[in-house]
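Hi there, hope your week has been kind to you so far. Thanks so much in advance, here it is:
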Amino acid sequence: MSDPWRDPYAPSAVVVPTAPVSTGPQLEPIADPDAPRRSMTPILLICLVTALLAGGLGGTLGFVFATRSGVGGGGTQLGGTPLAAPSAAQRAPESLAGVAKQVLPSVVTVRVTGAIGSGFVISSDGYVVTNDHVVESADKTLSVSFSDGSTASATVVGRDPESDLAVIKVAKDDMTAVQLGDSDSIAVGDPVLAFGSPLALVNTVTSGIVSALDRTIQAGDPGGQVRYYAAIQTDAAVNQGNSGGPLVDAAGRVVGVNSVIRSVGGSDTEAGNIGLAFAIPINQAKRIAKDIIDFGKARRTVIGAEVATGGSTGSTGSVGARLRSVEPAGPAATAGLKSGDVITKINGHVLEDGTDLIALVRKYAPASVVAVEYRRGTKIQSASVTLAADAK
């Protein structure tokens, strides 16, 4: 067929097509069906050997993984691979466990006939602080036990029932004493640990925070000794048997003496922890303990006035501590206070009634100077009062 588009004057040429060059996958030639077939035996043997090797390797790996994850043997372990627990020696000193390890050797369980309490060593030669109500029924001797299980006899050095503090002397040398802190430097919210033997469970440690400061408490059995506290309030779990044990800050320093709990129980046998526990500030306890050791008795701090307790100070329901009488030449009189004045604040702490004034005054050492705000009639006045020691 003639090409209508060909140049009629162009020479003719025969074009032979070349074999196409493939860039894609190559196809295998089709096998000749009449060609002799190869034997399948070697191929089957290779597959069998490969399967056996794969099975052995899989079993080995499965055993290794099962052993590492704790599966098999003693039963299935849930969860991931457990991490190695650090030993007690690896606890950081500033951790709660580190603080507990530091303090526990200095905490003792005080055993009196029919009762049990706690205490803590304040000197290497064997002086121990506890509560007065722990040893009030003791005779001259009693026993204490330590966190390592050892025991020793002890004698009562002296007691101060009004502050609910006592000192005993343990017949043991080279004792580990606690570090004493500064109860005036703690703040609400600071973490604390309580040590002791609640419900006879020795070597118990509980944790909490400082819930309040200068919480005034009036305690004591009806007809018995009335005790007043300007206490450290904490929510650390404290129960019967914790009395006399230390309240410790996060650095392992004693900041209080566990003494009182508030409970919804109707009797002592029903009393238990509800997150309201109170400790005597260590600054007060340290001063009283030193008085007992040095002089055989403690000096009681007074303001030189008798106050009304148990309610508001007038028909209007106003708060404060009304002075019933003022001792001539006493601290209050020297500062210019008179009978009938109503003290509303001491060192900035608001007073609800006379109980607050008694508790807060006893917190301070004799010769301390405190700022007092008082009401005389309708006029508010202020004064500086130098507290004194009771003449008793």
